[in-house]
Description:
The structure holds two protein chains of two kinds. Chain A is 39% helix and 13% strand. Chain A is an alpha/beta fold. In chain A, strand 5, helix 8 (169-176) and strand 6 (182-186) form a beta-alpha-beta unit. By secondary structure, chain B is α/β, with parallel strands linked by helices. In chain B, helix 1 packs across helix 2 and helix 7 runs parallel beside helix 8. At the A-B interface, helix 10 and helix 12 of A face helix 1, strand 2, strand 3, helix 2 and helix 8 of B.
Amino acid sequence: MSTTAAATQATGVVYADYQSSKPVDPRVVEAMLPYFTQTYGNASSLHGVGDLATAALDDARARVARFVGAQPEEIVFTGGATEANNLAVIGYALRNKRKGDHVIITEAEHISILNIAKYLEKNGFRVTRAPIDLYGRVSPAKLRARMTDETILVSVGWASSEIGTIQPIEEIAEMLAGTGVVLHTDAVAAEGLVPLDMTRVPVGLMTLSSNDIYGPRGLGALYVRKGVPVAPVLLGGGQERGLRSGTEDLASIAGMATAADIMTAEMPAEVARIGAIRDRLVARVLSEIPDAHLNGHPEHRLPSNAHFRFDGIEGEAMVLSLRDAGVAASTGSACSSKTLEPSHTLISTGLLHEEAHGSLEFTFGRFSRDDEVERIMSVLPDVVARLRHLSPLYEKKDQS
Amino acid sequence: MKSTQYTDKTLEHFRNPRNVGTLEGPNVALGRVGNPVCGDLMDIYIKVTDDDRIEDIKFQTFGCGSAVATSSMITELVVGMQLDEALKVSRGDVADALEGLPPIKMHCSNLAADALHEAINNWRAGVKPENATTGAAATSCQPRPAEVVEVEIEHLADYQGKGVYTTLGDPAQLADQRVVVLDTGDPAAQLAIDLTDHTGRVVFMTTGKEPSVSAAVRSALRLSDVKVLAEAQPLALGGEGELERIRVHDLNEDEEYELTADAFVVLE
């Protein structure tokens, strides 16, 4: 048990919101420290202090590349995953404008991609949003049906950060092979939970986040397959082969490399352990709380994700009540969002607004403990019952 | 500011709401405002004395933290008040009594005053609780009931065999699909119930407030996993080559929205 997780758990809080943010692994923090005070050079400098930084940068790049089965020169470090998405989608669209002006995304994308798509539309590109099925999956056939001669890029998240549904990325990549259309995937939600092997899956561009493998926040990376042309979106000194200017944040990059090494070594055991915790929560919620439903795919889903909805009550009220009871969870209800719009992914799976309002998401991770399911289930049934008692909408089925 | 950055007073009312419940009897009126589509629905019951005083008040609310807290707060503010006095209690008064609400919640989840005023108006108009309709709250989400008119569903023929079914031999053929069954009476409702054995998503769409089916079938529907979508009128079908979405007129809101669907069953 690490000190970071122990600190949260010592306060009696069950942290079941790993999708929002993850603690940095203390081993990662340890590995970062020398880069603040000892190896502080600029990798672009010609002197010896700079050379040490260059060597450290090269080493870190190779380790992050190894984590996803890539070549070191295919990894571009960015200031976070949002920036990597911008570089991938805007950078690719701008660089390949003469080939076509059409980009396809899906209804299951993260808001980062949705807003980038809107930006492209304002700047003369056409964007099509492919529908998803009942479980949040997009089919290669539905994507294929939307492709035209003008299509240059398809962007599909490897998994939904929200409902946890895993997309058939391999099939989509195979469908696109030989068409000249490049596939970008935002793999942030899937990182550390499903294997991301670029020697096996022919995606052209892939977004990675450091924090999602328990590395420091504020760092991401874009995998750019050899031969896939991308234009930079941040201009300056020409670092990262000209694709991402700005002096490299060596401490964070070294941290991400260590996080990647740890993840490679521990992922099989960790995924099995997290999956067992999640499975137990899902089984108990569905059997012990009436009129509870699981959103997302029953099998093709991230092992960390349990996404429910409860008839007759609203998500923000659930999250507030759980907070009082020492459980940190999240919701796709409009009432908790800045825009007061419910989750677009839930609506696209076919749910009505009033159902999307009743959603509650638990996500587990490296420092989650087996007994936390017990803790959640010692309070959740009462929270649901209390809010249903307050609600004019909930009528017990056995009473009607 | 986060939508959930509530004052201690608001959280206290959310945690320990006063006067939860319903009221019955001859001196009772109900005010209902909001819409579950927007995430808020409030019922406020008042019991009125012969000299126009609020003798008792109860509420039920579906909604977020501030929706619950404002409902609870107003019941405390107005119990014992004369009706004329209670009509002067405004949304601002409720927010002030809670020592403020997050700006984003001032409009959407501060309907309690509207619900109270609606209850008083219903009392004065002699509207019994069972006949109370959803009142017009001054919000973007206020109900503006539209008239039901017979409309031709656009592109219905275009998707025949591509998601539109007028007969259905074997419900299993729609396994794992999002099926919308149009309310054409008991056989359609029964088919909707049968479909729940094959897919997790069956919507029974009716233009009425309740499905136009027999009492026995209505109760079977309620016990089933069928999602009844009331006051909804299908307007047009859409999709790339096959049915993917249905444009729906929400008759309660007089608004249009799109519902994702793979199959649309309109029994002949």
